[in-house]
Amino acid sequence: MRMQTMTRDPIATARTLSEALPYLQRYDGAIVVIKLGGHAMGSDAAMETFARDVVLMQQVGVNPVIVHGGGPAINAMLKRLNITSEFVGGKRVTDAATMEVVEMVLSGQINKRIVQAINAQGGKALGLSGKDASMITCKAAGPDLGFVGEPVDIKPEILHTLFQDDAIPVIAPLGFDHEGQTYNINGDTAAGAIAAALGADRLLLLTDVDGVRDASGEVVTELTAGQIREMTRAGIIAGGMIPKTETALAAIEGGVRAVVILDGRAPNATLLELYTEHGAGTLIRG
Question: What are phi and psi of 7, to 5 degrees?
Fold first, then answer.
């Protein structure tokens, strides 16, 4: 027997589904890399919504890849363990003790939370890090940063294997060098490098801001690489937005079709971006 009481207008719901058809067709078979920032993970309810959206995306033909951060959780654990942490140029200085905590929190606590959330929604998520299957080889990002790495080689074969098995990769941004040393990689940087190696259709950077803002403070819905560079030179793009736009430009130069910077705290942010006419956040093209 059907429920007679509904909290939503069924006609509006049907109309929304119908209007999404061209976008469903557009992304059928596409690879979409999603960077889930630590500040965008939010509550258990927000994680549940995100996980449901990811499973829905896969159900309608998208191959999603999740690359996550975990800064707030790392900060909390370092504080509990009385380990001092500092930042240089927006990157965490990572000594040996900090590296142990980073790997434990990213590969353990955060990664498994996301995997569990996706699986609870009927998906088949598999957690791994850039060290698994030799996916991400790194070099040291700089002498002042300790064990912070920059990707120099990405081997995405394991991800294609997981796509064939209808699995959803959830990747902790860790890598290693040719001597076997583990490195902490900025999550945006790792997501951009993985997206480029996969030739992804979209890279979605889910963060805690609405998008890139212009000089008047308004979110710009679409920008070219040239406009990004000009806004950076003018000081309009500054602070924490600079590494995100740099990641976007590097990903586009590497072959990613477009990058979107959007507020991951907003409900259904990924679905709004992919399957509605107005999208969400700031779309960046070459």
Answer: -90, -10
Class of domain 27-285 (CATH, top level): alpha beta
Res. 86: pLDDT tops 50: yes
| pLDDT tens digits, 129-177 | 999 999 999 999 988 899 999 999 999 999 999 999 999 999 999 999 9
- 173-210 pLDDT, tens per residue? 999 999 999 999 999 999 999 999 999 999 999 988 88
User: In terms of DSSP bridges, do strands 174-176 and 168-172 run parallel, antiparallel, or are they unpaired?
Assistant: unpaired
| Domain positions in the chain | 27-285
Residue whose pair of structure tokens reads 């690359």 in the numeric block: 67
Residue 89 confidence class, pLDDT cut points 50, 70, 90 = low
Cβ neighbours of residue 209 closer than 8 Å, sequence gap 6 or more = 241, 261, 263
The region that residue 279 occupies, defined by phi over 0 for left and psi between -120 and 50 for alpha, beta otherwise, is: left
- How many CB atoms within 10 Å of residue 64? 25
User: Which residues are paired to 260 by β-bridges?
Assistant: 204, 283
